[in-house]
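In response to reviewer comment 3 from the previous cycle, which asked for concrete evidence that the modeling workflow produces usable outputs, we include below a single protein chain processed end to end. The sequence was submitted unchanged, and the resulting structure tokens are shown without manual editing.
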Amino acid sequence: MPEFVLEFFGTLLHVTGMEGPELSYFFGPHLLGLRKTPEKEKASLTVHLGQRSGSGGRGVRVFGPDGRLLRRWSFHGMGGIPPLLPPFAAMNGQYAVVQAAVLAEGDRVVALIGGVGSPRNSVALALGGRGWRMVSSQYLVVDRATGHTLPYQLPMELRGVDLDAVRAAGLADGPDAVDATPGGPTALPGLGAAEDGGAYAWSGDLRRVQSPLTGPYLQVRPERLLATVDRGARLGPAHLVRLCCTGTDRCELEEWDVTPSVWPPEAADGLPAASRLRLLLPGTRSADEAADLLHERLTSLPAAKGTVLCPAEPRTPREHPAGSTTWGSTRPAPRSSTQPSSVGSSDPRAAVATT
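The workflow returned the following structure tokens.
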């Protein structure tokens, strides 16, 4: 069984049970290639996807460098909070995860917070046209020890007005788009090894997907649409911007002192932020106006500097109902919100697994 090497945030993973084209499509530059020899590329963690004995279905197992089983859970897809790879739940609480599109311009970082159905991708694409680079299209990932914002290059998921925006920019979801709906082909066309026999290329970078919860949408590698940040970059704290659709006549940007939904929950209090803002949009088709307002405001502010938040001492792993991926976890109780209504949600319960 092929064993692949992936790098996330400076940590090497070995992954088995998945095809190279799938890993290449979902993780792009994070996939380094096939593992060559046991003596080289020693990984901090090994992730195995395979059939579960007895109960059926697929399962995920995570092993430490000494071969000890650290975590296991049922496989429900690549997405969710936390996502499948890297196995955040087995990484000693080192990283905080928020559902957001994250971009950088120079030393400035912005996290557009919103869930499925929010206009975050439309605003992100508009910022890309103003020189901002993609850090992550789906998740803000923060190193809790240093406060750094980390690149996490996953495919963009485009729906509704997002599709209108990319089609206007010349992207066509035509014959080169792979059908990833159930029963459709899974192999990506044109995939091959790099000239040095190492990293894979993601030449099949466009997919049509049918979700049972949110309907049809288009997945596309971010590199096809805008410039991206190198996977080894370490960026400062982000400006946290919550996107809200209102009845206002124009876009407005205001201070916002509410902490977004974070995984794991205890990371919320210490989540670093250059500023906390709320972007009020008059409708879903105001991305250009919103991008102009954000660009003008954020580029006029001094760049945030990363600071060490606590000693580099491993935290004690704990089980948490909210966002936990272990078997036997209980679901979090529904919460009521007193905040103004907004399009999309960064609540972990709103995350939809990629199928």
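Residues 174-203, 306-355 have pLDDT under 50 and may be disordered. We consider this sufficient to address the reviewer's concern, and the full set will be provided in the supplementary archive.
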